Amino acid sequence: MGLYAVQVGQQSAGQLDRGERSTPSVILYTAEGIGIQGAGVVGTPLDPAVSKFHMRYSGLRLLLKTPDRYLLLPTHWQRGHDPVIVVADTDDIRIDVTTDYTTTA
Hints:
Radius of gyration: 15 Å
Number of helices: 1
Oligomer: single chain
Number of strands: 6
């Protein structure tokens, strides 16, 4: 099973690197700023009097959702340059997934 997971992961990474894999856009809301950076990522402070979420991060793509984490990419992610962002799925975040599926390359 482990070898299969490695093979699937390598295939997915190759597709992503070649721009063949489409990923949905997401907007991440956080209770506290978490300093996300990357090509195309924009962090916008929100009014704490209006919502428990104080930061809004746009310019992100959903790579993968596990039972307890989200793996996100900057919109203009480049292998070896930009990070994969890992965000724990807690009550201190909200993820809005949009229907904008575009190729990440």
